[in-house]
Write a structure and sequence with these properties.
Elements lengths: L1 E5 L3 H14 L4 E6 L11 H5 L14 H6 L4 E3 L1 E7 L4 E6 L5 E5 L2 E4 L3 E3 L12 E2 L4 H12 L5 E5 L3 H11 L4 E5 L11 H13 L2 E4 L3 E8 L2 E9 L2 E6 L2 E4 L3 E3 L15 E2 L11 E3 L4 E4 L6 E2 L4 H15 L12 E6 L2 E7 L2 H6 L4 E9 L9 E9 L5 E8 L4 H13 L3 H5 L15 H7 L3
Parallel strand pairs: 1-2, 1-7, 2-3, 7-19, 9-16, 10-11, 10-16, 11-12, 18-20
Antiparallel strand pairs: 4-5, 5-6, 8-17, 13-14, 14-15, 20-21, 22-23, 23-26, 24-25, 25-26
Helix pairs in contact: 1-7
């Protein structure tokens, strides 16, 4: 069996590694990767930029050469430009030589990821316009930040990467402004969580402009000097030394047209990562699958999902029964002195779907009250009739993200707030009060 894999990062290499372990020499695998790096931890790039991680190579799990030694040849700087699913053939361009050739497959795995959206005015190249998709991008940004003459950083987009990079830039003493088109940062979160994070950013010297768009870029000799921003009827020119475009991503799927796609271009897959075309699988940021909570297609471009989805494909192609995977939608971040996490549905997501739900929020102690004074907030979303947990958001100081993880497990298991309220959790003062904050939030849900 010959398996062609498009994309050599989380999903693609997870599938390749699992498949090779299962079938060994009974499978031929070839991986085509458009970039020069494979199997890297993209979520760690902001921490590499901040210099918390000193070297970019520390983000790379295995190199192309290491994969080749294990029987998985990876062809970097090779872009798949077209797929003929009837002929089971891919068209590939060598980006270094310009050579174009075709290759055949028995099974095709698409793990092509997503790319930064290059909408106007970010559809031109400038020497000081950056984006962050791979380690090499992180190195370019880091090098620019080390230049003390570069004072003013403008970041467009207040998602996870944009916000984490804003903190990284402050480590270099820069003047940092974050521009976000939505009315609050992290649009997936409910407003009160976003507002708490905005206050934390402001406290640490990051200026946040929500409800604001970058309408034009003023440049000299190919270098941006000012960004023109607009909110309502007001406009302003912001000084720019470094501009980072982090305003959303688009699934990289233009090379294939025969599979079913969502409106954003992501390839639709089922729980076995199968597309609408036989023998074609997709996983990671280029794909979209149904939520285990709502049953609706939900785009969740995270490395955690990509690795699990890739492994499922490896199991299936290798003849093994894959472990069950339910897409819940779990994410977290740390900004300066505040942590935040979200699992399942937010209140606004439940409301937009017309669900009969209740919302309940508490402020509790991260530890035993006599041990530490750090506080966290827990917001629960649950079904009004069945009382099953639909979502949770946690934010504050101390042990914040693990509390959200409790609720991820509860959602996965279909627990009610009442069942969660008497969960037998570990107790010790350095970790929680005798009644953990998660238990208190569940027990006080009316």
């Amino acid at each position: 069996m010959k398996t062609v894999i498009i994309g050599g990062v989380a999903a693609g290499m997870s599938a390749a590694s699992k498949l090779k372990r299962l079938l060994k020499d009974h499978v031929e695998i070839v991986v085509y990767e458009k970039g020069g790096e494979v199997s890297y931890g993209a979520c760690g790039i902001p921490f590499y930029i901040s210099d918390h991680i000193k070297q970019g190579k520390d983000l790379i799990a295995r190199t192309a050469e290491e994969f080749a030694k294990s029987g998985i040849p990876v062809k970097t700087f090779h872009e798949v430009t077209a797929v003929d699913t009837d002929a089971k053939e891919v068209t590939v361009k060598n980006l270094q030589t310009g050579e174009v050739f075709t290759d055949t497959y028995d099974k095709l795995v698409i793990g092509s990821g997503a790319s930064v959206r290059h909408f106007p005015p970010f559809d031109r190249e400038y020497s000081n316009l950056f984006e962050i998709r791979d380690v090499a991008d992180g190195t370019r940004v880091k090098k620019a930040l080390f230049d003390e003459s570069q004072k003013n950083v403008v970041i467009v987009g207040a998602g996870f990467i944009g916000l984490e990079v804003s903190e990284a830039c402050k480590h270099y003493g820069k003047n940092v402004t974050v521009i976000e088109l939505s009315d609050h940062i992290l649009p997936a979160f409910d407003t009160e969580i976003s507002q708490a994070l905005e206050a934390e950013l402001a406290k640490n010297g990051v200026e946040v402009r929500t409800g604001t768009a970058v309408t034009d870029l003023i440049s000299e000799d190919g270098r941006i000097t000012k960004a023109v921003v607009k909110w309502g009827e007001e406009t302003q020119e912001l000084p720019v030394d470094i501009l980072i475009n982090s305003a959303g991503i688009a699934p990289a799927t233009a090379f294939i047209s025969s599979v079913e796609k969502a409106k954003n271009g992501a390839i639709c897959v089922n729980e076995r990562m199968e597309t609408s075309v036989p023998d074609v699988y997709a996983a990671g940021d280029c794909s979209i699958m149904k939520s285990a909570i709502t049953g609706e297609y939900t785009y969740a471009p995270l490395g955690t999902n990509a690795n699990k989805q890739g492994r499922i494909i490896g199991d299936i192609l290798g003849g093994a029964e894959p472990k069950p995977f339910k897409l819940i939608g779990s994410s977290a971040l740390r900004l300066f002195g505040m942590d935040a996490a979200k699992v399942g549905l937010s209140e606004k997501e439940a409301q937009a779907r017309g669900l009969d739900y209740k919302a309940h929020t508490i402020t509790g102690n991260s530890y035993a009250s006599y041990y530490s004074s750090e506080k966290l907030n827990i917001k629960l979303i649950y079904d009004a009739k069945s009382r099953k947990i639909l979502g949770a958001e946690t934010y504050g100081q101390g042990i914040v993200v693990p509390r959200a993880n409790y609720y991820a497990i509860a959602i996965y298991a279909g627990l009610t707030v009442d069942e969660m309220g008497f969960m037998d959790l570990c107790y010790s003062p350095p970790f929680s009060g005798v009644w953990d904050a998660a238990l208190i939030a569940s027990n006080t849900a009316k």
